[in-house]
Amino acid sequence: xxxxxxxxxxxxxxxxxxxxxxxxxxxxxxxxxxxxxxxxxxxxxxxxxxxxxxxxxxxxxxxxxxxxxxxxxxxxxxxxxxxxxxxxxxxxxxxxxxxxxxxxxxxxxxxxxxxxxxxxxxxxxxxxxxxxxxxxxxxxxxxxxxxxxxxxxxxxxxxxxxxxxxxxxxxxxxxxxxxxxxxxxxxxxxxxxxxxxxxxxxxxxxxxxxxxxxxxxxxxxxxxxxxxxxxxxxxxxxxxxxxxxxxxxxxxxxxx
Length: 256
Ligand code: CAA
Fold this sequence. Notes:
Elements (H helix, E strand, L loop, with lengths): L3 E6 L2 E6 L10 H16 L5 E6 L4 E3 L4 H4 L4 H19 L5 E5 L2 E3 L1 H8 L2 E5 L3 E3 L13 H9 L1 H10 L2 E3 H6 L5 E3 L4 H13 L3 H14 L4 H14 L4 H11 L8
Parallel strand pairs: 2-3, 3-5, 4-6, 5-7, 6-8, 7-10
Antiparallel strand pairs: 1-2, 8-9
Helix pairs in contact: 1-3, 3-4, 4-5, 5-6, 9-10
Bound molecules: acetoacetyl-coenzyme A.
Acetoacetyl-coenzyme A (CAA) binds next to helix 2, strand 6 and helix 4.
């Protein structure tokens, strides 16, 4: 049985982590299967947006598989951590936006997967946390790095050193998620957002995402130069000519 379900529809791939009996906790096999699914989606020129969610109504991902970790040597743990980093880097570097639809527990590696996604939508029952210190560990899939960059150093230290959980309303308040909705509205909202994205100029979306991502590692001056180059390079492309012509002709653009 596969731990990953994939649905491709109208330029959007939805990937569901499917191990509900363990609240979608991730062992090396699940990590490998998710990596393969994301790799396929990011390499597919037809795909303009990706949604990642968890199977069932209780959990997005309850973290790395603690039972598996309890048996790991230092060497195996390094391999497991590296596999997690490779997966999350792949998600973060996706040319097209990746939306996390967080439908319940997002603990440890679950919060970390959501942090690598570009947009985080949460159901009201979503619960976030980095409880690794309770296991004598630290976040190992980027939590010590990405969480502070998103919510600030103080809040990240509170969450990681305290090891507590936060509910969806608090996650929204601190900017950890973009929106919170009723559980039944979560996937419809993710689909609606994905549909909005794929109606826009595909190259423009990819270039905008690239500029925002690259800008995180650059000074403002360097980032503005990077944006200027990217902006000017789009002029004269078929996509830009169609977008501007459609505006002048008062009709919707046809990009795909
Ligand atoms: N690893 C392995 N199995 C897990 C799991 C995990 N992270 N989380 C849940 N499960 C399993 C449980 O063992 C249980 O299986 P069994 O029925 O076979 O015993 C099943 O999922 C259901 O879980 P619970 O009975 O515990 O459900 P609950 O509703 O009472 O509690 C919960 C839910 C609060 C999420 C609780 O399961 C829990 O605390 N899970 C662990 C969360 C955690 O600590 N995550 C961080 C992991 S470390 C990490 O992720 C490192 C990293 O940075 C990569």
